Amino acid sequence: MKIIDIFLTPIRILIVVVWTLFSGILGMLLLVVIWNPAHTQMITTRWVWSPVLLGICGVRVRLHGAENIDMHNTRVYVANHASQFDIVALCRVMPITLFFVAKRELAKIPIVGQYIYLLGHIYVDRSNAESAKQSMRNAAKKIKAGKNVISFAEGTRSKTGELLMFRRGPFIIAKEGNIDVVPVAIEGSYHVLKSGSYIPRSGVINIYIGKAITHQEYGNMSVEQLAAHAREKIKDMLDRHP
Asked: What total of structural domains would you count in the chain?
């Protein structure tokens, strides 16, 4: 690490924390005025929160395969997860509002937890199987109501950057609702901020949007087969763009 980075890193971390809290407060205030969670999230995350975080950390985000994003029909988006910057990157470049399936522990974060809840993101209690199933049902209802849902299908951040096995949750949602599944490969975020680290590094994050796996295509697949199929699609995109 360069000498200048040793001095700048604590300042960057402080700005990230303060700006995140400010964005959460701004979002809650906007929600009272606009009363539209999708519009509020687009304003606060794409145009306020994420650009500043990416800018002070020297991170650029590139979107590939935008033509595979359906602007009119809701879908289940599934992505790999190697860094906290995955969320920042997605919020910055996705032209649609995505509602995340998030772990319940995030609800304990002051301001941010309340903001996420008010917007309508889905919390999952992984320690309670029945509660987790209910969360998946809530996600399916949101999709049918016109909201795009995204899930990090590995269930946790990869400690090594390697692709983990996919969990069943998002694919149960898709199967029960006959909803198309869109694979999303995120590359470069592990370099920027690996799991367990609090010191971001400059770099480029590439987001690749694959072609949708339609409900007609996976109709005869089991949930496990669909999860494996989506994982293979994401792995293929990552292997082609190392």
From this structure: 1
